[in-house]
Amino acid sequence: MSSPQFSSITALDRLLDDLDVGEARRRQLGMVRGELRRALHQGALPVAARGSLRRLLDEESLAPYVRLAESGALRTRLVKGERPRTSEATNEIRRQCVDVLRDALGLPVLQLGGGALALQPTPRFGDLAALRRQLDQDLGGHMSPGQIRLTAVLALVLDAAPRSGELVEQRLAHLADGNAAVYVERRPQRGGGHPDGEGDWVELSTLSRAALERWLPLRAQLAQRAHGTSRLWVSLWHNHDGNPEKEGATLHRPPGMPLEENGLITSYRRGRGRYGLAGLLPPKLEQLRRAVITETPPVTVEAAEPV
Fold it and tell me: Which contiguous run of DSSP H or E holds residue 181?
């Protein structure tokens, strides 16, 4: 007897087809898709999850799914005649995939399960080296606009360790000739910064220069569409401010507008899963910044004050 077809799984397949992820992450998402289908077939999830992808990916459905999957009950193959519990590594991958799916559907991240791998507060030095290698490898291939921007942001963080608020204030004038260095105006939290602004010129690596070579032409095209801005980091897509439900209360923002801090943080969070970097990046950009300061302090250089 053939398995029943669930509308939510059909919708999930369409969502997966549209996701811009690497091959490894796509295989992991395929594992989750298979587990969800088997959980529905077993009647282990709410009935509403059969017909609605949003209900399939809400906490009421995902919490029992994760518990069942971690127990091994959704395995397709027996191990020595049994279905043992899945490993902690598999459990963490499953939770990451759930976050990727919810994010793609516009839903907030959930904290599911109790056995997740303990993430280091900041990456270890070896992890930073691995991150650099991965970014360098990515730069050699096709990249979406979002990946190009995130790669350039990460490369600058690895070299200069700016805070998110410092990043979004950067301008084109903050890049030295040949992108050899970047100026970072330090703005410590809780009002600890210099009243007139105090910053450093930081030497940029080959990785950062290559990443900027990919980002700056794209940035120029985007900024031109928005009638120009000197900000280094700009938005990629059309968005809006205000209340879209109330006429006259919405400010439409075309692509190429200055990237706000919330947008930068959101792109980092989404990019971890979308571009296969979850194993190399901590959950928060600030954690990466602290790791750089601890393991590979920025190299400052002498340069003229930016205009």
Answer: strand 181-186
Architecture field, domain 125-301: Orthogonal Bundle (1.10)
**C-alpha torsion angle, residues 157, 163, 168, 172 (rounded to 10):** -50
Start-end of H helices in the chain: 7-18, 23-41, 53-56, 59-71, 88-104, 125-139, 145-160, 164-168, 206-225, 261-274, 285-295
Digit-coded pLDDT (tens) for 108-125: 777 665 444 343 456 766
Q: pLDDT tens, 246-262?
A: 555 445 668 889 999 88
Cα(254)–Cα(112) distance, rounded to whole angstroms? 36
Q: What is the DSSP string of 234-247?
A: B-SS-EEEE-TTST
Assigned token pair, 298: 């920025």
- Residue ranges per structural domain of the chain: 7-104, 125-301
* Residue 95 burial (C-beta neighbours within 10 Å; 0-12, 13-18, 19+): buried
Predicted structure pTM score? 0.58
- Rounded Cα gap, residues 118 and 19, in angstroms: 27
The whole-angstrom separation of Cα 207 and Cα 256 is 24
